[in-house]
Amino acid sequence: MNRLIASFLSAVRQSLGKRLGISICLGIALVTAITVLGSSRLAPVLATVAEAPRLVPAILNGSPVSVLYVTRSSDTVLARCYPGFEPSLTLRAMGSNAEQMEGVLTCVSRQ
Protein backbone atom coordinates (compact mmCIF):
# COMPACT_ATOMS: atom_id res chain seq x y z
CA MET A 1 0.00 0.00 0.00
CA ASN A 2 2.83 2.42 0.95
CA ARG A 3 4.59 1.62 -2.30
CA LEU A 4 1.44 2.45 -4.29
CA ILE A 5 1.05 5.83 -2.55
CA ALA A 6 4.74 6.61 -3.01
CA SER A 7 4.62 5.88 -6.74
CA PHE A 8 1.41 7.93 -7.08
CA LEU A 9 2.98 10.95 -5.29
CA SER A 10 6.10 10.61 -7.42
CA ALA A 11 4.02 10.69 -10.61
CA VAL A 12 2.09 13.76 -9.37
CA ARG A 13 5.34 15.60 -8.51
CA GLN A 14 6.83 14.89 -11.92
CA SER A 15 3.67 16.02 -13.72
CA LEU A 16 3.38 19.22 -11.68
CA GLY A 17 7.08 19.93 -12.04
CA LYS A 18 6.89 19.82 -15.84
CA ARG A 19 3.75 21.97 -15.95
CA LEU A 20 5.14 24.44 -13.45
CA GLY A 21 8.34 24.82 -15.48
CA ILE A 22 6.37 25.44 -18.68
CA SER A 23 4.10 27.94 -16.89
CA ILE A 24 7.08 29.86 -15.53
CA CYS A 25 8.74 29.99 -18.98
CA LEU A 26 5.53 31.19 -20.63
CA GLY A 27 5.03 33.78 -17.89
CA ILE A 28 8.55 35.15 -18.30
CA ALA A 29 8.11 35.31 -22.08
CA LEU A 30 4.79 37.14 -21.70
CA VAL A 31 6.17 39.68 -19.22
CA THR A 32 9.19 40.29 -21.47
CA ALA A 33 6.99 40.82 -24.54
CA ILE A 34 4.68 43.21 -22.69
CA THR A 35 7.65 45.15 -21.31
CA VAL A 36 9.41 45.50 -24.67
CA LEU A 37 6.34 46.22 -26.78
CA GLY A 38 4.45 48.20 -24.16
CA SER A 39 7.27 50.50 -23.15
CA SER A 40 8.07 51.39 -26.76
CA ARG A 41 4.48 52.42 -27.31
CA LEU A 42 4.12 54.29 -24.01
CA ALA A 43 7.43 56.17 -24.10
CA PRO A 44 6.17 59.15 -26.16
CA VAL A 45 3.08 59.43 -23.95
CA LEU A 46 5.05 59.33 -20.71
CA ALA A 47 7.51 61.93 -21.92
CA THR A 48 4.78 64.57 -22.32
CA VAL A 49 2.71 63.90 -19.21
CA ALA A 50 2.38 66.85 -16.83
CA GLU A 51 3.84 66.04 -13.43
CA ALA A 52 3.87 67.52 -9.96
CA PRO A 53 6.29 70.40 -9.34
CA ARG A 54 9.85 69.22 -8.73
CA LEU A 55 13.02 70.95 -7.60
CA VAL A 56 16.15 70.02 -9.53
CA PRO A 57 19.72 71.14 -8.72
CA ALA A 58 21.50 72.82 -11.64
CA ILE A 59 24.41 75.12 -12.49
CA LEU A 60 23.70 78.60 -13.87
CA ASN A 61 26.62 80.81 -14.91
CA GLY A 62 28.93 78.62 -12.82
CA SER A 63 26.83 78.93 -9.66
CA PRO A 64 24.65 76.22 -8.12
CA VAL A 65 20.92 76.94 -8.34
CA SER A 66 17.70 75.01 -7.85
CA VAL A 67 15.30 74.89 -10.81
CA LEU A 68 11.62 74.45 -10.00
CA TYR A 69 9.75 72.77 -12.86
CA VAL A 70 5.98 73.40 -12.86
CA THR A 71 4.22 71.73 -15.79
CA ARG A 72 0.55 71.95 -14.81
CA SER A 73 -1.38 75.22 -14.94
CA SER A 74 -3.38 74.18 -11.86
CA ASP A 75 -0.29 74.00 -9.62
CA THR A 76 0.44 76.68 -7.02
CA VAL A 77 3.87 77.16 -5.50
CA LEU A 78 4.30 78.73 -2.07
CA ALA A 79 7.60 80.54 -1.44
CA ARG A 80 8.64 81.34 2.13
CA CYS A 81 11.63 83.47 3.03
CA TYR A 82 13.42 84.10 6.31
CA PRO A 83 11.98 86.83 8.58
CA GLY A 84 12.86 90.26 7.25
CA PHE A 85 12.91 89.01 3.64
CA GLU A 86 10.16 88.73 1.05
CA PRO A 87 9.82 86.80 -2.21
CA SER A 88 10.64 88.68 -5.40
CA LEU A 89 9.87 87.36 -8.89
CA THR A 90 11.69 88.74 -11.92
CA LEU A 91 10.60 87.75 -15.44
CA ARG A 92 13.13 87.36 -18.24
CA ALA A 93 13.51 85.70 -21.63
CA MET A 94 14.37 82.02 -21.45
CA GLY A 95 17.76 81.70 -23.11
CA SER A 96 17.85 83.15 -26.61
CA ASN A 97 14.09 82.61 -27.12
CA ALA A 98 12.48 85.99 -26.41
CA GLU A 99 8.97 84.54 -26.73
CA GLN A 100 9.38 82.03 -23.88
CA MET A 101 9.66 83.52 -20.41
CA GLU A 102 11.04 82.21 -17.13
CA GLY A 103 10.83 83.67 -13.65
CA VAL A 104 13.66 84.09 -11.19
CA LEU A 105 12.41 83.86 -7.60
CA THR A 106 14.65 85.25 -4.87
CA CYS A 107 14.21 86.38 -1.29
CA VAL A 108 15.14 90.05 -0.91
CA SER A 109 15.46 92.22 2.17
CA ARG A 110 12.43 94.40 2.96
CA GLN A 111 14.66 97.43 3.61
UniProtKB/TrEMBL annotation:
Domain of life: Bacteria
Protein name: Uncharacterized protein
Originating organism: Leptolyngbya subtilissima DQ-A4
